[in-house]
Write a structure and sequence with these properties.
The protein is α/β, with parallel strands linked by helices and 169 residues long. The protein is 35% helix and 17% strand. The chain has 6 helices and 7 strands; from the N terminus they run ααβαββαβββαβα. It has a 7-stranded mixed sheet with strand order 4-3-2-1-5-6-7, with helices on both faces. α1 crosses α3. It starts with a helix and ends with a helix.
């Protein structure tokens, strides 16, 4: 369970958030994770396990995955098992069938979705892209992915930010 731990903790944090109806309502969400559109920046250990668990156990739709070599997008959902096999064989997510590919991994942060999970590097949500974030909830699976300036703006717009110290503990 060591490899899966942080991804599983992220999923548990999201489940718990949605379990509290009044908190979820502040983000305009209700119910479970089933069918929720999720974008994940990072398909390393944390992002991969988060995506896999959300896909398998919660029937969430992973609509975007961002990596060092770009972003994959499919509004109906990405097959996480097929992507895992593709990346293992090719060493990249680029050219994965059935998805639109854009060259920047940070494009995954700007996808219209219910939940955005930055699971890569710090300071990814910042002055340059904070106005382009379209998620209702940001679940910080990476350490410090949101700058102070971006956090203030997003909170003022009603975006719920589940902090890294909670999400990846």
């Amino acid at each position: 369970g060591r490899r899966e731990a942080t991804g599983l903790g992220t999923v548990y944090g999201l489940r718990e958030f949605l379990r509290h109806k009044e908190d979820a309502k502040t983000a305009g969400l209700s119910g479970s994770l089933e069918g929720k559109k999720i974008s994940i920046q990072g398909f390393g250990n944390v992002g991969f396990w988060t995506a896999k668990i959300l896909h398998n156990e919660d029937q969430a739709k992973i609509v975007a995955i961002g990596e060092w070599d770009g972003t994959l997008h499919n509004s109906t959902g990405i097959d996480i098992y097929a992507l895992e096999a593709w990346k293992a064989e090719k060493g990249t997510i680029k050219d994965f069938p059935g998805c639109k590919h854009t060259p920047k991994g940070t494009d995954s942060l700007e996808v219209a979705c219910d939940i955005l999970i930055p699971a890569a590097l710090e300071n990814q949500i910042n002055r340059d892209n904070m106005h382009k974030i379209k998620a209702r909830v940001i679940a910080e699976a990476a350490n410090g992915p949101t700058t102070t300036e971006a956090e203030a703006l997003l909170l003022s717009k009603g975006v719920v930010i589940l902090p890294d110290i909670y999400m990846n503990s």
